[in-house]
Design a protein that fits this description.
The complex is a heterodimer of chains A (319) and B (274). Chain A is of the alpha/beta class and 319 residues long. Chain A has one domain (2-307): TIM Barrel. Helix content of chain A is 50%, strand content 10%. In chain A, strand 6, helix 11 (231-248) and strand 7 form a beta-alpha-beta unit. The longest helix of chain A is centred in the C-terminal third of the chain and has 18 residues, at 231-248. Chain A is globular. The relative contact order of chain A is 0.15. Chain B is 42% helix and 18% strand. A five-stranded parallel sheet of chain B has the order 7-6-5-8-9, with helices on both faces. Chain B has a three-stranded antiparallel sheet with strand order 3-4-10. In chain B, strand 8, helix 9 (223-233) and strand 9 (239-241) form a beta-alpha-beta unit. The chains are: A alpha/beta (319), B alpha/beta (274).
Chain lengths: 319, 274
Amino acid sequence: MTATTTSARSDLSELGRSETALRTFLHGLPGVDQVGAEQRAAQLGTRSIKTTAKAEAIDLAIRMVDLTTLEGADTPGKVRALAAKALRPDPADPTCPHVGAVCVYPAMVPHVAEVLRGSAVHLASVATAFPSGQAPLDVKLADTRAAVAAGADEIDMVINRGAFLAGRYTEVYDEIVATKEACGDAHLKVILETGELATYDNVRRASWLGMLAGGDFIKTSTGKVPVAATLPVTLVMLEAVRDFRAATGRQVGVKPAGGIKNTKDAIKYLVLVNETVGADWLSPDWFRFGASSLLNDLLMQRTKLTTGIYSGPDYFTLD
Amino acid sequence: MSERVAVRKTYKLFIGGKFPRSESGRSYLVQDSNVSLASRKDARDAVVAARAAVKGWAGATAYNRGQILYRVAEMLEGRRDQFVGLGIPADEVDTAIDRWVWYAGWADKLPQVYGGANPVAGPYFNLSTPEPTGVVAVVAPESPALLGLVSVVAPAIVTGSTVVVAASPSAPLAAVTLAEVLATSDLPGGVVNLLTGRITETVPTLAAHLDVNAIDLAGVVDTDLAADLEGRAAENLKRVLRPLPADHDWAGDPGLARMTALLETKTVWHPKGV
């Protein structure tokens, strides 16, 4: 068993060197049963999580939130307010955990870093010409280095979908490797933009590609295209990280992003994680939600559980 | 040839412009029909729907709101016989129709009567205008089933608020049928949301709900329950309309009180001259 694993490991690390080998490997991955994946995701979405389990799930989900603002209209004041909220999401309740990270554009990183310094909240920045990724590699790498230098300890990169869909896998692979190098010690999250990949087979291939190239996390979406994270897509990605760990021993995190707006959705994702890859991934180190409006709903539900009274959006910050 | 079997109606809730069953799946037998037994989660969903509808409804012109209320009267007139068939006295149906028309007329007049220019000692135009309070929870009177319901819902929505109304538990058929009238009257979904079932199950949730701005206890008979509900409503300083005496004359002149109780006043100071 050990021998097979070792040889599998060395085989996999060699893949990036040749377009043919990479293509053969990615196209050799088993196809995804679309109907089955959608049905399984829908079925797991019907689980009923109540009372104490719900309270646990809400707190875990809060710890997993990458509190995100990626708008052209972001200002230093706005991102500082968001960072303050990340540290203490519910100022009225000191037992409320902090979120996983704050996610902003590179230009906003220094302002967030000031607020988060010394805390356990991570600072993520999108880079590599987010959200389209349509820029020369030098520009993308400079973007990444600038974000890291400014204080980001997690980088959310976008893959080159144009190259991926055209079948130029080594190009995508090399870009991820180069970005990973530019990240230094920072964690690298690879955004697949599944809404543009068209098929679940492509999602599975892109997931493997991102992991083979060294991504620490694979992330569904930028949140900037109409189709963002869905349960079946996340299921396919979770299966990929599970199989990747079985093949290589390295654990990779998953981050669905975009379109997850309420507690019910978030809990569906947690059920999906638990049933697909198990409790090893039920931690902010291995699973994150890229979201902005989700946090307020989580806080409202949390308040309902602790006080017994339904809360309203008037009692939480607008951001 | 076999005899035709009549299609019997399931009386469901009215939330966000749709007619869902209770989230709990429960129903109860009343007036020889199965009627949904709303749970506190239905109450929560109804508040979400009502809140979502506030912006559009309060933002609509007063004229437009008046037109829609008048349309409700037209639709109700067309279904007059159906309500009579449900056991509502014909003159009560007529009074209910007239009441919609009466309130429809107030839509663009109330701001003139209840707002206005204030004389101030300074170079300002000072204007006060009434604004809707937001989401109003209403407990409809036990009887009269139709006129009572209309008399508490119309004054709340005419000014731009949206309502979650708990129907009379013993006579909900007229309420659900009125919801069908509302659904076909160009009234935007979520402006009126109807819960059928036990008052003690849904209304405490509404009274405590922080996203509800006012509560009208018109139909609460039990004084202990009324006191409990007022206590819950105090948490976020809801406006409370206290229960009416059991012998209240619903057919009489409604007056402005039910409308004005659910308004907030906005005052604008506008500098004049340079």
